[in-house]
Design goal:
Layout (H helix, E strand, L loop, with lengths): L4 H44 L5 H5 L3 E2 L5 E2 L3
Antiparallel strand pairs: 1-2
Length: 73
C-alpha cells in the first residue's frame, strides 16, 4: 500500500499542531507560575518590612556628624 503525500502532510500537520499547542500551554503555564511567584514574593516582602507610621513620616531627620541622615525610631 502506497502512502500518499496528502496523508504524510496531514499527519505532519497534526503532530506539529499538537506539539505547538502543548508548547504554548507549557509557556503560558510557566509565565503564569512565575507571575504568581513574583506576586507572592512581593506581598511577603511588604508584610515583613517595618512600616513607618504617619508620625514618623513628619519627623525631621536626625543628622549625624558624618552627614548621613537617619530617622528617629
Amino acid at each position: 500500500m502506497m502512502i500518499s503525500s496528502h496523508q504524510i502532510y496531514g499527519r505532519l500537520y497534526r503532530e506539529t499542531y499538537l506539539f505547538s499547542s502543548s508548547a504554548w500551554a507549557l509557556s503560558l503555564t510557566s509565565i503564569l507560575l512565575s507571575f504568581v511567584v513574583v506576586v507572592l514574593a512581593e506581598s511577603n516582602s511588604v508584610l515583613h518590612q517595618p512600616q513607618l507610621s504617619e508620625q514618623d513620616m513628619h519627623k525631621p531627620a536626625r543628622h549625624h556628624s558624618d552627614g548621613k541622615n537617619c530617622r528617629l525610631s
